Amino acid sequence: MNEMTMIDRDVTTGTLKISARKAQVYYGETHAIKDVDIDIEDKMVTAFIGPSGCGKSTFLRCLNRMNDTIDICRVEGQIQLDGQDIYDPKVDPVQLRARVGMVFQKPNPFPKSIFDNVAYGPRIHGLARNRADLDEIVEKSLRRAALWDEVKDRLQAPGTGLSGGQQQRLCIARAVATAPEVLLMDEPCSALDPIATAQVEELIDELRSNFSVVIVTHSMQQAARVSQRTAFFHLGNLVEFGETGDIFTNPSDPRTESYITGRIG
Amino acid sequence: MADRPTQQAPTQSSGTSNPEKDSGHEKHIVSSFDRDLETVQARIMKMGGLVEAAIMNSAKSLETRDEELAERVRADDAAIDALEEMIQEETSRIIALRSPSAVDLRVILSVMKIAGNLERIGDYAKNIGKRTSVLAQVPPVSDSASALRRMAREVELMLRDALDSYIQRDQELARDVIERDLEVDQMYNALFREFLTFMMEDPRSITPCMHLHFIAKNVERMGDHVTAIAEQVVYLVSGDRPDEDRPKADNTSLTS
Question: Does any CB of chain B come closer than 8 Å to the CB of residue A140?
Fold first, then answer.
């Protein structure tokens, strides 16, 4: 009876992309992430949900060493990308971040033209052989971010002149332009209207065929819509991690249930 | 995209094509939502096909006194039940994950109800299979089995049209199905009186007649469930519940 496509919620692709073991994060004296063990699979959207200050963004930032830029931040434990410890001294954080791209909560376009914003990454990483290649990458990236039609006639205009929602999609285009293996998204839709949000969600679903996507979101409905697996963080602990449908219909931990039904926050 | 397309009188649209109701078929920006909705509706159609077969086979087994076929109807009900369970799980998942609204919500609600109706129809067919196994052991009573088969045939056609109207979002066809339940009720009435007469004439016919009567009642109930499915279609397309004043002819409960 399973010959028809089961609702598209396969929970395993069998290939591990990122795995964390006993990950700890300290901000000075504050123990922000406690003993997090998680396996993030390739070609899958993983959502992190949890109340403010639960550590989900902190943990997300560990995955491409964005916490390195914070002086008082200390990361312990092991975080591996494709079996390699990303906190190994031999790993170049810049190279790591090319493989693990990121989109932030607030749009942060470079003070450059729309074209240059997207072309920046491919240029410094030498992904385009010539101008035509670069044009193609820029167009493709802008299309994937559902922005192309709105900006195709003013690619040389400054990126900062776009509306907030357009800037955010520009940042997504910039992030996908370098073809990262993992895309980290920290509240990518909080500045977008519902239609742009739906477009970004469709984009995320599409990106899943090539990359692994990890998204932090305050909107539980968004986590429910876009992800295949959901992790619930609370007070620095990873409380529950499982298939999104199970988390939202029948969570096993009472704290998860309370949070997703709006009883604790 | 989600708003109801038109508030004008629904009587204007006719036939099977229904262009002004097409907004429900417009694609969502998030295409996986469409896939989810299509999958669950495809399952309803599959379930409908199995239930149609169960109705026909149960009535055929009764008329031809085919115990093997009756046995198969009983066994096949497990597949219908399994599909219903799967549909319930998937619809609850869609509600939890996608918070459907407007026409999407009506689709999901109608899917849940239709699955429940189909499952009940399947159970009635299974019950006919059970009674057929008993009836095959005793001499036939008149030609009521043929009448029952005609009645089942009518219900099966109604179900087919109800499912067609569901897929095509054709509320005219659905309303037609609702009207046709009257005929099924009348057939049941006639059979009820016939069985009553047989039983009064010959007490030895009481056992088979009781079974036959339950079978007739089962088919009549099937018709009610098909009507409920058609009502879901009307609700899905128009957002209105059909009036309760549809013609009814099952007045056997008043027989003294």
Answer: no
Question: Measured between alpha carbons, how far is B73 from B66 in angstroms, rounded to an integer?
Answer: 11
CA B231 to chain centre: 11
DSSP type of residue A32 = E
Q: Count of alpha carbons within 13 Å of B221, Cβ hemisphere only?
A: 17
Query: HEC states along A108-168?
Result: CCCCCEHHHHHHHHHHHCCCCCCHHHHHHHHHHHHHHCCCHHHHCCCCCCEHHHCCHHHHH
Would the CB atoms of B36 and A7 count as touching at under 8 Å? yes
Q: What is the CATH T-level fold of the domain B30-251, as seen in this structure?
A: Methane Monooxygenase Hydroxylase; Chain G, domain 1 (1.20.58)
The first and second tokens of residue B185, run together, are 């009720």
Task: List the Cα angle B165/B166/B170 in 5-degree steps.
Answer: 40
Answer for the pair A240, A229: CB distance below 8 angstroms, yes or no: no
User: How many domains does chain A divide into?
Assistant: 1
Does the residue A168 lie in any domain?
no
pLDDT tens across B204-246, in order? 999 999 999 999 999 999 999 999 999 999 999 988 887 766 6
Contact A249 B29 (CB under 8 A): no
For A255, the domain range is: 16-108+181-260
Pairing between strand A212-216 and A45-49?
Answer: parallel
The pTM (predicted TM-score) of the whole model is 0.78
Q: What is the ipTM of this complex?
A: 0.72
> Which of B33, B36, B99 faces A221 most closely, judged by CB atoms?
B99
Phi, psi of A82 (to 5 degrees): 50, 40
Q: Which of A7, A195, A201 sits opposite B39 (nearest CB)?
A: A7
Task: Single out the residue of B194, B208, B177 nearest to residue B255, CA to CA.
Answer: B194
Choose from B26, B28, B29, B89 for mutation: most chain A CBs within 10 A. Answer: B29
CB A226 within 8 A of CB A195: no
pLDDT tens-place string over residues A8-38:
455 566 788 999 999 999 999 899 999 999 9
For an interface test with B, the pick among A1, A2, A6, A7 (most B C-beta atoms closer than 10 Å) comes out as A7
DSSP reduced 3-state for B138:
coil
